[in-house]
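User: Please write out a complete single-protein record containing the residue sequence and its fold in C-alpha cell form, without commentary.

AI:
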Amino acid sequence: MKQIILWSHPRSVSTAFERCIRTLRNGQVFHEPFAVPFYFGPDKQTDDYLRERPDYVPEATYQSVAEEISARFPGKEFVFVKEMAVSTQNHFEVFLQDEMKDFQHTFLVRNPEKSLRSLYRTGYFDPGLAGIKELYDMYEFVKNHLDPSPLVIDSDDLLHFPDEVMRMFCAAVGIGYQENMMRWTPGPVEGWDRPLCQGWHDDVMVSSGLRRRTEFNSKSVVGVLPQKVLDAIKENMSYYEAISRHRTSPDSKTL
C-alpha cells in the first residue's frame, strides 16, 4: 500500500489539492492529523486557552497519530496525509520510526506574496501562521534523512495546470490518475467539520472543482498591504525560493 504525505503551509491551495485526492475512492485520506497534538495534546506547542475548546484532546500525541496514519486499511490502495509542516516542528524525529519509513514525503509551496495576502484577507493575520520557514525545515529534514530528492510542487503550477500537475503527482507517488479528479460535488467533507477547521475550508467546500487559471495577478503588493504583512512576505521569501527552485513542473509536452 502506498503511503504519501503532502507537506504544505497555510493558504497554499493544499486543501483543494486534498479534495482532488479525495475523489479517488481507493484511498484513505487524513486531514492535518498532527494538528491535534500540536494544539491540544500533552506535547502541545500552543497556549493553554485552547484547553477550553470542544476539540481539546489531551491524550493525543505525535506517536499516537503516527500509529494511526501508518495502520493498514483493508480495501484501500493508498494512504494520503495532508499536513502543515508547522504542526510537527520539534517532532520531526517521529518520521524516522520504523512504522513511518515507507511514507513518501512530498511538498507544496506557494509564493508568500500570494499565500500571505490570502491569509490577510481571511480577516485574521498572524505572521506566525505563514508556515513557510517550517516547511523549509521539514524539506531539509526529509532531504537529509529520508529522501535526497523529494517531490516539490509550486502552487502556481498547480493553479495554472491543475490536470497536468495532478497527473504528474499521481505518477510520481504511484497512485492511479483519473480524468475527473479535479471535479466534485460541493458540500461538507469528512474531517473538515472539526471546530479547529471552521472557516478555513469554506471556499473549497462550496466549490465544484479545481479549474485552470488563465490569468495571474503579477502586480506588486507593495503599498497595498499593511507593513506587518509586507514584513512577513520579506521574511519568508528566501525560504520559499529555496524550496521552489527544486520544484518539478509538468512536462512541457503536456502543456
